[in-house]
Amino acid sequence: MYDYLNMMKCLSLYTFLFFNIIWSVFCSTSNSRETFCKYLVYI
Predict the structure, then answer these.
(1) Is-contact 27 33, C-beta < 8 A?
(2) CA–CA gap between residue 3 and residue 28 (Å, rounded)
């Protein structure tokens, strides 16, 4: 049970990091959504 919880924690962390990387790449490549991305970063 404890191992399973640890695995889920790691998985969620990696998903979060992966999403952040994808999001920052998306924001840096699309200039038209720049303000939109900045707004989302503050949330």
Answers:
(1) yes
(2) 37
